[in-house]
Design goal:
8-stranded mixed β-sheet, 333 residues, alpha/beta
Amino acid sequence: MTTNEIRKYLENLVDESIGKTLKETNAIKHIGIDEEKSLVILIINIGKAGGEPEAKLRREIAKIVKLQLGFKGVKIQFQEQRKIDSIINRKVKFIVITSGKGGVGKSTISANIAYALTRKGQKVGLIDADIYGSSIPKILDVPHSYPRGTADGKIIPFKKGNIEFISTEFFTELGKPVIWRGAMLNSMIQHFFYDVMWSKDLDFMIIDAPPGTGDIMLDIKNHVPDAECIIVTTPHLAASHVAIKAGLAAKQLKHEIIGVIENMSYYINPVTNKPEYIFGSGGGEEVSEKLGTELIVKIPIAQPEFSLALYESEEEIGQIFDFIATLLITRYL
């Protein structure tokens, strides 16, 4: 019995998760024979792993290999096709922007880092993974609409300039809160990584994570274990105390921490032209010291001149984000 003969027996089996035969999808990626153990070894791509379609296919393969072909056993490794084709299998730098608590400007920083990277010629994706508090569409000033899909069921990402992005807000009725539990959260994060038709030549994927250390951070770890983190805090020591927890959680999940950004650091009084530390001081230093990492920048309080939340290179804060973008590009050279 040869591997080609085994293939002919198996290739007309149907992967019911997509309704196509293994031959139609060129799903059988490896066939090996362990003659000593009378064992067939298979690697097969399927539409969706788990559930009854996989279990049924496994039974049908075992039946053919053992009863029709006379082998004593079969070892099957199923690979989920959407994961193989997804963004996680490309040379993309994944950067998670996270914080200990909400209200520190994490989403605005995520969007502006993405925007600054595009100004430096990088191709950038942005995932709004803050499921309960999604705000990236508003920050990018993109009106609500439901996502469009391709004929093969892929989600087409939204675009703002040269930023490709996706957000939970587009999957819900405008203005309605998201009231989901763990399994639904994980399902949405999987869609963002596996089912969105991201451009194949993205350089960076910025992930706007939710505050805290809950389910979604664990999901991100499972999908992109090599992602690196930037921790966002404000100068107030109450905020930095919680940001330290977020950083320690990232370390526990084996995410490397790039550094800390202190947001809302000070306000330039237009009368005196001097900084006023209206939210206190020392938070960024405390977080970076406790986490053993760099305090990358301190961002003052100011309103963008030309848009709702995005800063341009000619603005002082825009230049700060240009510095962050250069830092990230240089890091991966």
